[in-house]
Amino acid sequence: MAMSSYPVHPRHPFYSFVREKIALAPNNASAWNYLRGILDYARMPYSTQAAFAELYVVEAVEAGTGDVVDLENPPPSQGAELPCPAALEFMADIHEARGKEGVPEAVKVCPFLTRA
Question: Which of 98, 91, 81 is nearest to 113 (CA)?
Fold first, then answer.
């Protein structure tokens, strides 16, 4: 079956839907895979979602971040277990896609990549 030529724009409801689901349950690998699938289908680089993924690679949500909510990049819900392994992997893929220049950044994001 041929893929549809239906455009998937960054402001499409698919993106809002998956970002909301990731915000509710950041460690749900299925939601991150869904995001990857949307980006792959639209032929968009993962780096277009770097600002969103960076919210999930921190140690904890800063106090007061719930006062103003960025609807395009919803922050993790309170009590979320951070950093999120799926977000770390996503960020590593973003850096890896940059080639040799991105490898040091990928290692910083995921230090376990250097273990043999």
Answer: 91
pTM value > 0.70? yes
Cα 97 from Cα 17, distance rounded (Å) = 25
Backbone torsion region of residue 87, taken as left when φ is above 0, otherwise alpha when ψ lies between -120 and 50, otherwise beta: alpha
User: Does 59 or 109 have the greater pLDDT score?
Assistant: 59
- The rounded distance, in Å, linking the Cα atoms of 82 and 80 is 6
Residue 65 has pLDDT above 60, yes or no: no
**Residue 88 burial class via C-beta count within 10 angstroms: exposed 0-12, middle 13-18, buried 19 and up:** buried
